[in-house]
Amino acid sequence: MEDVLILQKLVSSVPFSNEKSKHATFSLTSALKTFDYQKRVKINFPSLQHLVDNRVLSQSMARKIAGSGLNFHHLELAHRRNTERIRILFAEVYDGKCKGNKIKENNRFCCGIFFS
């Protein structure tokens, strides 16, 4: 309780403006969305770790894939349905950079992973 009182005293001693605080706060909805995203990453990322370890995907891209709700099984299904589409997905260029790491070099390895 003492911590709360000290914090209240500190906050009340500093001039406070709603306009200034808008830039440093976030909504409950935003916090919940972030929590859900992190939960999906925690669940799905481990299945993609071997793709990161073998430099098929960057860690950042694997986290984005995991956060979108996809895991290795989803990528494997997509690959079985159409190998060219998954290659195109990993080779997609964004902001001047390839999303997948050297996909042409890793394509044979990637196919080996999906069909092993």
What would you say about this model in short?
This protein has 116 residues and is mainly α. Helices cover 72% and strands 3% of the residues. A hairpin with a 2-residue loop joins strand 1 (93-94) and strand 2 (97-98).
Layout of strands and helices, then pairs:
Elements: H1 2-13, H2 18-21, H3 28-53, H4 59-67, H5 72-81, H6 83-91, E1 93-94, E2 97-98, H7 103-115
Antiparallel strand pairs: 1-2
3D structure, described in words:
By secondary structure, the chain is mainly alpha-helical. It has one domain. 72% of the residues lie in helices and 3% in strands. The chain contains seven helices and two strands. The protein has a two-stranded antiparallel sheet with strand order 1-2. A hairpin with a 2-residue loop joins strand 1 (93-94) and strand 2. The radius of gyration is 22 Å and the shape is elongated. The relative contact order is 0.10. The model has no long low-confidence stretch (mean pLDDT 78).
How many H/I helices?
7
* Percent range for β-strand residues: under 5%
What's the N-to-C terminus distance?
Answer: 58 Å
How many domain regions?
1
Largest sheet, in brief, is: 2 strands, antiparallel
Offer a few descriptive terms:
7 helices; mainly alpha; two-stranded antiparallel ribbon
